[in-house]
Amino acid sequence: MNIAVYSSKAYDKDFLQKENTAGYQFSFFEPHLSENTAQLANNHQVVCVFVNDEVNANVVASLSKLGVKLIALRCAGYNNVDLNACKAHQINVVRVPAYSPYSVAEHTVGLMLTLNRKIHRAYNRVKEGNFALEGLMGFDMHQRTIGIVGTGKIGLITAKILQGFGTNILYYDLQPNATCDALGMKYTPLEQLFSCSDIISLHCPLTPATQHLINKAAIDQMKSGVMLVNTSRGALIDTKAVINGLKSGKIGYLALDVYEEEADLFFEDLSNKAIADDVFARLLTFPNILVTGHQAFFTKEALAGIAHTTLQNITDFEQGKPLVNAVL
Ligand code: NAD
Predict the structure, then answer these.
(1) What is the phi/psi pair of residue 326, to 5°?
(2) Does the reported pTM lie above 0.85?
(3) Is residue 154 within 6 Å of ligand 1 at its C-beta?
(4) Please, are residues 314 and 46 in contact by the beta-carbon 8 Å criterion?
(5) Whose CA is nearest to atom 19 of ligand 1?
(6) Which of 146, 162, 255, 313 fits 94 for a cystine, CB–CB 3.0-4.6 Å?
(7) pLDDT by residue (tens digit) across 267-321?
(8) Residue 147, CB-side half-sphere exposure with 13 Å CA sphere
């Protein structure tokens, strides 16, 4: 079985090869999968992709012509895959629905604490011998109200960690969750969650229903000075509306691990280039925002889990077993 691995980095190679007890032939390609790079999958039955690979209808048609039978996502989200096109071309799609949700939950809380207590700014100051505290004042997390949107695996763990600080947790999901209720979290309609929370953390998937969930109307309902945290998918947030919220002071803090147009930015070293995305460049000018480049998942445990499940998915497919992690 030949596997074309797109958007691959040295760490993907290491972890996939470590798990490759079946002896599959990998071709590691650094570029994203796109209409321009689909041809690289010639002579491969399986294409292995990540969050910013473009698996649109044209790409799927090209892969089908090349004989690709399986698309194996190395991630949980599949918003970048045209599932109808895959179905039409009889290409199976599998994903990694769970891999250390702790990785993302812990990073989320790390972002909240860093942004609140301005640890990133303090680090730079101290390096320059500046020990002044002006501008570094934070707030106690204790007794703050945190709104969690989406209480699946990651949202629930994030909420549990935050309960350790003595916070009050409001949550919204498509329906109430008995585990959350038993832990004392309060199921709250979205509008009320927006208006009552000091910190709002997004953990729902990107779907047509959640695209730009955080738009001007949502921001208008929020508390003045709210902290907004997105470690889920960039397009949950209407970035221009959030920039206006930062300019007016309505949004007091913004932490992002994901960005709507991240595909042209994240996972690459662009430190010697001009940033072409003016909206992103504007975001970076605010003193009260913190951005990481889609690294919330990036722990040893998560990468080992991703590699293990990806190869198990491929083996199940090869052996004609039920695809337990099929997206379709
Ligand atoms: P999950 O499927 O376990 O949970 C998602 C939850 O969102 C579910 O409870 C679901 O009911 C809920 N949901 C769906 N639609 C909703 C809506 N319209 N409003 C509110 N809630 C809704 O997923 P998970 O493993 O917890 O992952 C959550 C998200 O985190 C993923 O979709 C992915 O986009 C993101 N993620 C990011 C990283 C990263 O490195 N930054 C890594 C992994 C996952």
Answers:
(1) -70, 140
(2) yes
(3) yes
(4) yes
(5) 173
(6) 313
(7) 999 999 999 999 999 999 999 999 999 999 999 999 999 999 999 999 999 999 9
(8) 24
